[in-house]
Amino acid sequence: DLSKWQTGNVTDMSEMFIGASSFTSDLSEWQTGKVTNMSWMFCSASSFTSDLSKWDTGNVTDMGGMFWGAESFTSDLSRWQTQNVTDMLFMFHGATSLEQRPAWYTTRSLKVQGLYHI
């Protein structure tokens, strides 16, 4: 049961569930305050639908490709802190169910090519 994983000291979640096309676990209570890299985390996890709205993303710098091909993903990410993110390349590429496009603020130079290419 991944919902019970202790993730409070994790700093790198990149490619964690890449290619997990049937992945549907609840990750809503994961502690992500120390994570700096979430790149390609749910890439091609086409069935993933967990609510990530409460995740602390204030230290994340890389979200590139995070939801690439996550066709079922619809979570509200509007409260995510993205002030330190420098890479959002292709973050939502192919995330065809995403209805709300978050309007995030960042003070960093940001790579955004293909951010919403769906």
CA-based shape: globular
Structural class: little secondary structure
> What count of structural domains?
1
Radius of gyration: 13 Å
Q: Give the rounded overall mean pLDDT.
A: 89
N- to C-terminal separation?
Answer: 31 Å
Beta content comes to under 5%
DSSP E strands, number: 0
What percent of the residues sit in helical stretches (DSSP H or I)?
Answer: under 10%
Specify the number of helices.
0
- List the quaternary state of the chains: single chain
Q: Uncertain spans, ≥5 residues at pLDDT below 50?
A: none
The largest β sheet comes out as: none
Describe this structure in words.
The structure is a single chain. By secondary structure, the protein is mostly loops. The protein has one domain (10-24, 31-100, 110-118). The protein has no helices and no strands. The radius of gyration is 13 Å and the shape is globular. The N and C termini lie far apart (31 Å). The mean pLDDT is 89.
